[in-house]
Amino acid sequence: MGKERWRFIDSGDCSPAFNMALDEALLEWHSEGKIPPTVRFYGWNPPTLSVGYFQKVEKEIDMDAVRKNGLGFIRRPTGGRGVLHDKELTYSVIVSEAHPAMPETVTEAYRVISQGILEGFRLLGLDAYFAVPKTEEEKASLKNPRSAVCFDAPSWYELVVEGRKVAGSAQTRQKGVILQHGSILLDLDEDLLFSLFKYPNERVKARLQKNFKNKAVAINELTDRKVTISEAKEAFYQGFEKGLDIILEPYTLSEAEIEYVNELARKKYESDEWNFKR
């Protein structure tokens, strides 16, 4: 038997609402049997702060700072913490929960899907590996992350290089389909990132930012040369093919599909009710 063929979409830099609407539409279409499992790459225009489905914007996010810096803002349909999407490659994977390669548990499915990202890092010459929380304290911190910043919080099967987190991912399951999406950082503006959240005081902010440096890192801090977005796309394209043992077939969305996504973006993801509801 030959390798399974999955769809591949590179949708380029899109608005925050379009990005989340397309991920949701792909999940929907896959659940209806209209499309095969899909890997998607995308970017953000403008750079955007996304928050997890359960985050409380009023309590955790400094919206004045978001607006002052000309950033987009969006709530994801997945959990997790705040992510600044700027100089990064964002990916999503849409696959049925019933797919024979997908384990039943969220953490094990996360590991299987993330194997594609792991292989991508290795193709860029980085010694990436999965870190698994071992101590009770580490496991407890998964349930109650101290920080609203995604890359500050550990999780199961975190991808790390030299002990620091290099990719942040989140997952949701709806209509019998897994949607996993995440950020692969090429570069990171820590000062900008930390200016977007609320803190009890400056001392706490300074301490969290200092700790963050020990926990998270961008690709270009680890390499002797600058990795471009096109190089990253090529490496992770091959990485997903190798890690998931599939063949990716590039696909361009039809006008009708784009129209559907734009409508979903307008109705749902551009609305204050969705973005500020909690």
UniProtKB/TrEMBL annotation:
Q: Recorded E.C. number(s)?
A: 2.3.1.181
Question: Record's superkingdom?
Answer: Bacteria
Give the catalysed reaction(s), semicolon-separated: octanoyl-[ACP] + L-lysyl-[protein] = N(6)-octanoyl-L-lysyl-[protein] + holo-[ACP] + H(+)
Specify the enzyme's EC class, one word.
Answer: transferase
* Record's keyword annotation contains ATP-binding: no
Q: In which pathway does it act?
A: Protein modification; protein lipoylation via endogenous pathway; protein N(6)-(lipoyl)lysine from octanoyl-[acyl-carrier-protein]
What InterPro entries is this protein classified in? Answer: aa-tRNA-synth_II/BPL/LPL (IPR045864), BPL_LPL_catalytic (IPR004143), LipM (IPR024898), Octanoyltrans_LipM/LipL (IPR050664)
Q: Where is this site: Lowers pKa of active site Cys?
A: K165
Q: Which GO terms describe its molecular function?
A: ligase activity; lipoyl(octanoyl) transferase activity
Q: What biological-process GO terms show up in the record?
A: lipoate biosynthetic process; protein lipoylation
Limits of the BPL/LPL catalytic domain: 33-248
List the active site. C150 (acyl-thioester intermediate)
Q: Does the keyword Transferase apply?
A: yes
Task: Enumerate the UniProt keywords alphabetically.
Answer: Acyltransferase, Ligase, Transferase
HAMAP family per UniProt: LipM (MF_02118)
* Additional detail: In the reaction, the free carboxyl group of octanoic acid is attached via an amide linkage to the epsilon-amino group of a specific lysine residue of lipoyl domains of lipoate-dependent enzymes. The reaction proceeds via an octanoyl-thioester enzyme intermediate.
- What function does this protein fulfil? Catalyzes the transfer of endogenously produced octanoic acid from octanoyl-acyl-carrier-protein onto the lipoyl domain of GcvH, an intermediate carrier during protein lipoylation.
Assembly state and interactors? Monomer.
**Family according to the record:** Belongs to the octanoyltransferase LipM family.
Q: What is this protein called?
A: Octanoyltransferase LipM
